[in-house]
Structures are given as C-alpha cells and as structure tokens.
Design brief:
Elements: H1 3-23, E1 32-36, H2 39-50, H3 55-69, E2 79-85, E3 92-97, H4 134-145, H5 150-153, H6 155-163, E4 165-166, H7 169-178, H8 184-190, E5 202-203, H9 206-218, H10 220-224, H11 226-237, H12 245-249, E6 254-256, E7 259-263, E8 266-270, H13 277-289, H14 298-319, H15 330-333, H16 336-343, E9 367-372, E10 378-384, E11 394-395, E12 400-401, E13 442-445, E14 449-454, H17 461-473, H18 479-484, E15 488-489, E16 497-499, H19 506-514, E17 519-521, E18 530-535, E19 540-545, E20 552-556
Parallel strand pairs: 16-17
Antiparallel strand pairs: 1-9, 1-20, 2-3, 2-10, 3-6, 4-5, 7-8, 8-13, 9-10, 11-12, 13-14, 14-18, 15-16, 18-19
Helix pairs in contact: 2-3, 3-4, 3-6, 6-9, 13-14, 13-16, 13-17, 14-19
The structure holds 6-diazenyl-5-OXO-L-norleucine (DON).
C-alpha cells in the first residue's frame, strides 16, 4: 500500500471509530434521582416512577403537587420553565410556560399621573397578575413527552388538595408576610379564622382539587376554555384586573432552544430568554474562564466572581427581554470574545464602581425540582407565582391563586422591581409579552458526571447557580455540597455584595472593602437549591435538597 493510502485508510478507520463512539448508547443511570422543595412532592415523583412513568411524567406530577402543597411558591395561577433532556436522542428543549401580559396591559399601567410608579400596584391584587402558563405546560409536557395520561400524573396533586397538607414554619413565615393582601377567597383557604394557622394544621383545597380534576379530564382546555376560564376572567375583571377571555384562549407554551456554553470541561445547558438566567450564567463563566481561579487567594477569587456578576447583570438590564418582542444577540452575549472584551477592564485591586440602588427583598419564594430517571432523561424545572403567595388574590370558587409576575417587567425604565432589578426598553410592558425572568434550571455535564439543578431566589437565582457551576467544574461532585455552598451575590445595581451569614470570612471582608466593595450581610440565608448528580464514571446517583429549605432528595435504585 502506498503511504497516502495507508493514511487514508487510517483516517477512515479513525472516522469509523469516532462515529461508533458518537452513536454508541450512553450508559444508563442505575435508577432515579429526585429532589424537590417538599417531601410530599418528592413522594409524588416516586409514585409516578413506580407507576411506569418517565421523568417527564414525574415532572408533571411534581409541578402540580407543588402547586398544592407549596402554594406560596408556584401554582396553576403562575408559570415556569421546564428544561428537558431526552436520553433517546439527546434532544434538549426548554418548555416556556412563562406568564404573558394581558392584552389590555400597557407600558405605563403602573404609573400615576405624574409618571411615578404606583407603589405595590404590580405586586398586590389582580392587576398584578399575568396570564398563567403552568396549566398549559402540564398538558403540553404530558402529551408531548410523557408516557402516562395527564389524569394519572395529576392524581397525587388532586389527592393532596383533597386530603390536605400540613402547615410548616416556612408557610407560617410567608403567610404572615402576605396575610395583609389576601382577598377573602385566599384568606379562607390559607388562614384559619383570619389568622395564620398553627404548625401542623391541615390545609385542604377542595376548589383546587376540582380545578385539577378539570385539567385531568380536559387537558389544556380544562383551564383555558369553558366554565373555569369564564370564572377566572370574570373574577379578575370585577376586582380591578384587566383580563379578557381571549387572553386565556390564546395562551400557548413555547419550546425554546436552551442556552449552551462551556466552562473548562463542563458543558452548560440552561434557560433561554425570556429568562435571563442562561445568558448571564454563560457570560459570567466565560469571563471567569480566563483566570485560573484556583490559584487566587480567596479574596481575589471572590473579587473576580463579583466583577463578572456585575457585568453580566448590567447586560441583563440593558439587553434582555421576551425574545418574541425584542431581538437578542445571544451568539454575541454568550461568546468567549465578548466575555474577554467585557472583562478586560477588571482591575485586580479595585472594584469597578457603578450606579447605586436599593436591594429590595430576601427572595424567599418560587420553587425548583430536579429529576433524572433510569433511562437518563432529565428535567430541571423552576416554577413561580413570583412573590410569596403571588398577588395574594385567589379567584373565588377555583382555588387558583394568581401570580404577580407583572412585577418582573420594568414598570418604568431604570426603576427597580421588588428584587431591586432594573430594566429598560427590552423589558417594558407590552400586551402578550412575557416578563424577563431570572429562573435558571440548568444541566452541567462532563465526561464523567451530570448535574441537574436550580433554585428560587429572585435576582440571586443566577448567582447561586453560578457558584454551584463553578464548584462542580472544580470537582465538587457531591450534590449535598452543591446545595449547601455559602452564597454571595452582586447584581450591578445596587453596587454591593450581598452575602449570607458565614459566606465570607472576616479577613476577606476587610480585603474586599480595601478593594472598594460595599458589603451587606443578610440576616438570613437565601435560596432553596435542588440538585441531582449522576456519576457516570461510578454508576452512582445522588439527590440533595438545600438545608435552608424543607425539601427532600431521594434516590430509587429499584422501582
Ligand atoms: O422569574 C423570576 O425571576 C422571579 N419571578 C422569580 C421569583 C423568585 O425566585 C422569588 N424568590 N425566591
């Protein structure tokens, strides 16, 4: 054989080997791993696994169960993002069940005659509510990706609504916060004689059980058409809201291509717009990749991470919004070149000071769950009605507590929302538009391991997921460690590092101050991360729920 032929044969052989490797089925996980913010919800996932469902069926069951037993965090009156990975073909999609602004919404709807934002108008009561997306997403995921009928996957939620769930300390804390804005229907369900119920009290929701049953029987139309839809629209419209029937009948989930990036040997898949999460996460990791963070003293490491947060959150405020309304140059914002340009002016010794502002809230609500099934399918889902107990407005006779996701829009350019986030034109209110979100359900993957994770926490969601991603990339392949990591955060405005008690050591606080940073220690911890990890190299599964919350992670090795 002539040398060139030898080479050609070799190349062909190599190609064949590579192709074989590429098409070779990935090894399967030895079972299921599930983590959620509530033990009953994790149980619902296990029940569906045992009933022969896949991760997508479990996601439907767990979303609906969260709507019942964690009413302060998410629900049928809200929305969310479900990031799905299909093991069979490697397909990854984000099901966007984000709420949409009603058709009668307009950009100045929360301003007074003088052009100032009317305090709390986008937070309390039915005017704060956008058109819910969660019921549509449940029907869509069940039909498109599930193996079980929707009616089976909704069984645990209907049972919990009928039989009740027990009040916990977290429930009490958040109900106390939102009690003043509950309407009569919400007060009747969530309070006892007008007071926050004692720990262990059972909260039963027969109306919600009926609404879930309607969805179980009629799917999407059970919520968005017919009697229930009429009741929802009338209930809102007579109490100061602006919904009309076509708001509900025209609601549709969207499938979005997730945001992808890489950090060293980790592949990142995360939420696409209308979430800002994926773009900001990838942008921060791109900036940080140019340094060997492991070589830095702790204070220099925190400084670099904070400077990357500052820059990514600035871009969030300037460029991001609903992709159906604004054009977003995702390719550029997530490119390594752009990150280099953005981070070129990071000074090792000094902060890049920016505008000031006020940090508004602890961000203690919303919810997340993570699932990996024994076929290798994955779901990371972050769901919300926004502020604890949403708008506090329940439509009488439906059990549906409405979101106040309208506050995630920029009510006025440059004026901060409840999470202290600012925005401009890209996130201005418009009819049918989805408000910009920070929710960041995420997959991290290396040759040896997969992590599925996410958390609530308002604007701090993205920085929490960043810290977990960095730890994973640096070799923390322990789900418990990932959800426990101490947290710090910077969101461009206000110009301060917010940190959990114990997250930054005293000497490092001094070091950061010397570099010009302003620091604010939170009184309480924040976030409620749920993570599952599959160690492909060891055939091992882990599931962990944040010790700051009340959830549970579980691994089922045999069904
Ligand atoms: O979509 C968003 O970004 C917010 N509505 C999420 C709110 C949240 O996480 C509340 N806090 N824990």
């Amino acid at each position: 054989m002539r040398p060139c032929c030898v080479k050609a044969t070799f190349v062909l052989l190599l190609l064949t080997v590579c192709q074989a490797a590429a098409t070779e089925p990935h090894p399967k996980p030895p079972g299921w791993a599930i983590a959620s913010a509530h033990p009953l919800v994790t149980d619902a996932g296990v029940e569906i696994a045992r009933a022969g469902g896949n991760a997508f069926d479990a996601a439907v069951a767990m979303s609906a169960a969260l709507a019942v037993v964690e009413p302060m965090g998410s629900g049928l009156g809200g929305g969310g993002f479900w990031l799905l990975h299909h093991a069979k073909n490697g397909q990854q999609v984000m099901v966007d069940g984000r709420e949409r602004a009603p058709q009668r919404a307009h950009r100045d709807m929360y301003l007074d005659a003088a052009g100032n934002v009317r305090p709390r108008a986008s937070l309390d009561g039915p005017l704060a509510a956008a058109i819910p997306g969660e019921p549509a997403a449940l029907a869509y995921i069940a039909e498109r990706y599930g193996r079980l009928p929707l009616s089976r996957s909704l069984t645990p939620a209907i049972r919990f609504a009928r039989d009740g769930f027990a009040v916990t300390h977290r429930y009490q804390r958040l109900a106390t916060l939102r009690k003043p804005v509950f309407n009569a229907a919400a007060a009747q369900v969530f309070l006892v004689n007008g007071e926050v119920p004692g720990s262990g009290t059972l909260i039963k929701q027969p109306d919600l059980a009926s609404t879930l049953t309607l969805i179980a029987q009629h799917g999407h139309a059970g919520f968005y058409a017919g009697q229930l839809a009429k009741r929802l629209v009338d209930g809102v419209a007579t109490q100061g809201g602006v919904w009309v029937a076509t708001d509900l009948s025209s609601y549709a989930v969207m499938e979005r291509e997730p945001i992808r990036g890489s950090y060293r040997d980790v592949e990142i898949t995360s939420a696409a717009p209308p979430s800002s999460g994926g773009i900001a996460l990838v942008a921060m990791l791109n900036m940080l990749e140019r340094w060997d963070l492991g070589q830095f003293a702790r204070v220099d490491r925190i400084h670099r991470i904070v400077e990357s947060m500052r820059r990514a959150y600035r871009d969030r405020a300037m460029y991001l919004g609903d992709p159906d309304f604004v054009s977003i140059d995702t390719g550029r914002l997530t490119s390594k070149d752009y990150a280099r340009m953005l981070s070129d002016d990071v000074d090792a010794y000094a902060t890049s000071n920016q505008a000031s502002g006020k940090n508004r809230t602890e961000g203690r609500d919303t919810t997340h769950f993570s699932i990996l099934d024994d076929e290798g399918n994955r779901v990371a889902a972050t769901l919300s009605i926004n502020y604890p107990f949403g708008s506090g407005f329940m439509v009488a006779g439906t059990g549906v507590l409405l979101n106040n996701e309208m506050d995630d829009f920029a009510a006025k350019s440059g004026v901060a929302n409840v999470y202290g986030l600012i925005g401009g034109e890209a996130n201005a209110i418009a009819p049918g538009k989805r408000p910009l979100s920070s929710m960041s359900p995420t997959f991290l993957e290396t040759e040896n391991a997969v992590a599925v994770l996410g958390t609530p926490g308002g604007s701090r969601i993205i920085s929490m997921v960043l810290l977990a991603s960095l730890a994973f990339a640096e070799g923390t392949l322990d789900a418990n460690e990932l959800v426990t990591l101490p947290r710090f955060h910077h969101q461009y405005v206000p110009d301060q590092i917010v940190f959990e008690p114990f997250a930054i050591e005293q000497t490092d606080l001094v070091g950061l101050k010397l570099k010009g940073h302003q620091l604010q220690r939170r009184e309480s911890p924040y976030g409620d991360m749920q993570a599952v990890i599959w160690r492909k190299d060891q055939g091992q599964l882990q599931a962990a729920s944040d010790p700051r919350g009340e959830g549970r992670g579980t691994v089922i090795l045999s069904k």
